[in-house]
Amino acid sequence: MYEATFEITDDGGYTLATEETAASLELWCNDHCDLLHIRGPDAEAVVDRVEHLVGVRERLDRPEEVLLITDDCLRRHDTNAIEAYLVRNDCLLLPPLRYERGAKVCRVLALDSGSLTDLYRELVADGTFVDVLSKRHVNVVSEDAPLSPSSLLPDLSPRQYDVLQLAVEDGYYEIPRGTTTEAIADRLGVSRRTAEEHLRRAENKLIDAVFEHLRGRGRGQSQ
């Protein structure tokens, strides 16, 4: 399977609701209404726009954070809904849809990469601006979520794993450090340069994978 994250700029209702704000909106559609999670310093401004669009049935307030249940589902009124494109191109949406800075971010799953390419081309052909934030092959091991946390982790070589395991177990990442790369190298019977190279490669893979996941969840939410 293949997963892609698209950032789509259009004139949809929730897209415009977050335009020129520092808030983000996450959407779970239930056909008859929407469940919305709005976060950020401009959350109330987004709530006002949502209420004008589809009405608000219930709300739960926390500091700079609002949970809404709407009166109606925006998809009934939004001609730019992504769902129709997904059906035509044999793709699946991985909820929630996220809206921020006047764009919506969609995580999409497909059985083959060609379906994702076809989806992208159709969106662009209809005059939609689409930025591909990520595209990758994934393994789906699902319980209550489409993608398990393990599918987000990179594949480490056996030596990279061994070096990383010793670094963690011996306190290399503690403050102050409990060991050195020279000591790790001695335990593995390799040179310090070799141990450092394996460790650096393992760290780079993990950082890239974690950042990709964070970017998929929402850039700038902590600002």
UniProtKB/TrEMBL annotation:
Any one GO molecular-function label of the UniProt entry: DNA binding
PANTHER family on file: DIMETHYL SULFOXIDE REDUCTASE TRANSCRIPTIONAL ACTIVATOR
Protein name, as recorded: Transcriptional regulator
Database matches in InterPro entries: HTH_bacterioopsin (IPR007050), HVO_A0563_N (IPR056531), Sig_transdc_resp-reg_C-effctor (IPR016032), Tscrpt_reg_LuxR_C (IPR000792), WH-like_DNA-bd_sf (IPR036388)
Top-level taxon in the UniProt lineage: Archaea
GO-annotated biological processes: regulation of DNA-templated transcription
Pfam families on file: HTH_10, HVO_A0563_N
Domain HTH luxR-type: 153-213
Keyword terms: Transcription, Transcription regulation
